[in-house]
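Dear colleague,

Following up on Tuesday's group meeting, I ran the structure prediction for the two-component complex that the binding team flagged. I've pasted the input sequences exactly as they went in, so you can double-check that nothing got truncated or mislabelled along the way. The structure tokens for the whole assembly follow below. Feel free to forward this to whoever is handling the docking comparison.

Inputs:
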Amino acid sequence: MRLEPMLLIAWTMATAALAFSNVDHPIRTLFALVFVSFVPGLAIIRMAHFEGLAIRLLLAIPTSLSAAALVSAVLVYSGVPSWNLGLSALVSLTVGFVIADFARRSVQRETYASRRKLDDETRQEALVQAFVEGGTLSDAAAAAGVSTATLRRALRSSNRLRYAVRVATHGESDRSDLTSPDNADGADRAPAN
Amino acid sequence: MQTTALRREGRLPIAIPATDVARAGLVVVLLAGAGALWAVSLPGYDLRSMTDLGLVSVTPPLGMAALALIGLAFVLSLRMQRFMPVLPALAVLLLVATVHALPSLVEDAPRQAVAYIHAGFTDEIERTGQLLTNADARFSWPVFFSLGALVTSVAGVDNAIRLQAWAAPVLQIAYLVPLYFIFRSLTADRRLIWGALFLFVATNWIGQDYYSPQGFNYLLYLTVIAILLRWFRRRDVIRPIRALVRFFERRWPRLRRDGALEELEDDPDVTAPQRLLLGLIVVLLIAVSVASHQLTPFALLAAVGALTVLRRTSLVGLPVLVAVLIAIWISYMTVDFLSGHLAGLVEDVGAVGGTTTRNVARRLVGSSGHLFVVQVRLFATAALWLIAAAGAIRRFRHGHLDIEAVALAAVPFGLIGFQSYGGEMLLRVYLFSLPFMSFLAAGLFFPVAGRGLSTASTRAFAVTAAVLVLVLMLTKHGNEKADWISADELAAADYLYAAAPAGSTLATVNRASPIKYRQFEQYRYVDLRYLYEFDEPSAAESFLAGYDSCVYLFVSRTQQVNAEMYVGVPPGYWEQARERYRSSPLFSIVFENRDATIYELNSARHHCHSDAAR
């Protein structure tokens, strides 16, 4: 669901607004019960791409309730029984996970887009040629018509591209700016949505 | 798996046969009719006429007819050639609504006196943040109550007892989600999955689905098992079981022919981050369970231990982790409770016979109506377990070795040798084993995956479903006369808390009272131990005067019903006692309505005024 993160944030903010402004209306109860039962857990499990409504229900409800239980227990045992602080912690947890997930997906999308840009054979030839001629990463990026950041992301995420550069330069491209330990899996995968 | 079998399970697209269209239409009509009959029957519940048989005694005939229709519709939905899960799902949800949500709809205040105590603990933590570990053992496992405090505060609810109103249907529906995944891990036959879900709802009469740590922890228990069976499953068969299978293969030719284990759905692919997150969720749920309930962590330990020993889970270190968490919590966080109760806790260890006797015999007392309900419960329990045993054997003879289901149904019985749990251990054993008993019992009617219901099985399942659903009204709501809290009683309790100054002693005849739900720590609570001191006002006066504080005696309908139903106090006795109090110079009535009377102890009245002045 593309709108799910926005929905999570909106629900979280509405719950926080109703609770912090101490609104005395049944709508506050509805928002709060749904929030504590679903929202933090859903934000957490989104990080691992669990698809399907049933699986999300299975994991989100107990995870949400347990996260809230843990927060409440920490407040009680630490002698700071401020329930607004507890709500703040749950709101922060939810927003934090939604933002982290959003950032991760954005990076994945950019990486994928970078690779797509360099799928063009003409660009690949230009950048390999630039390396062959002893050019820097910036020179190669300029030759291929992409930004340095785009080239770096593409090299980091694509085994094939890195291999092509290495072969073209007869192994001379074993340079730290062309390889990255970040590329642990090295799979040329499309980002999941 | 054969194409035919896949088609029968609805996993291959086929044109919907005309008979299925007609049957689906009939199921929808039956369910709609059941819903309509049930809705029409709701205003007919006259709770004041309820007998010791509970809600069934005031259920209008239309209400019972609705239940029978639901059972019939459910069985028909399983008979379709092209299986449509939405139809049995509707029947299961309607069963939850008609039976488990019934008190929420026909009663005028949250039910069950013990829920009021849990609400009181929650209220105390919400207001003060303190844990009264010396006041009650449950404060040593407080996380459910602290969660309730957080929820009520954020939701702007004045008291957690409001959450009790719809707790039963909400929890029942919440349980269905992990149960679905558990059953899906045990079989690929979707009819069997829904049959097991139906049987679970139709036999879950234990009544722990209220605002309670057990109700919450049962959800955690089911979710942990669902995650283990779905994502951390191993398919190894240990040597003794393999030898057992070979032994039976030599004797049962059909077993040798069908031989292979049932073809289950492929294990879902999970990435490393998903496995990591699932593992963390399991640890989180177990940690919260350890800190919020005395018993469920041990049931979890038994369950994950059994799965590990049988090599049916890849999380082999989990039993150790659960044991360590339990040990840490008990050693460090429950010291206040254990220091005064350790001897009492360990005296039951190993005393299986004594625990069983106490769990059963203690319940076989009370009024004739109540005894009948208890006997029906015992019969229903024995029947379910026998059907489950027969189901396990029948499925085994057809080549399905339900190792996990049998193990998880059996291991909770080990808890009997651990504690009597206040005479409730057998009930909890039933609860923890119920999902797997339901699965095995349903297996009696669906022994072969994908083959659907034969005509004979249909008849047998229809009779079983109808009997279970009708009996459920008796087993689930058989104590409703004692569990029902009327709005008048709650109004009296509200008055009591408004009138009684802090520090007062609030006395009741027995513990079945809708009190303690607010300002728990500000009062002293005394119960007169079932009429021994309630019989004569002078005896109660001399007992209560020793408390050296303002004293109120709260006497309500629920207390009377409890005394008559569970203790066997003869009818009329209670009214005579109340008359004696009414005419006694030792007590004054300060509040009275149809269901409750509040007396003030005259000799302690000076405390009330001085307390009020303070």
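The two ends of chain A are 8 Å apart (CA to CA).

Cheers,
M.
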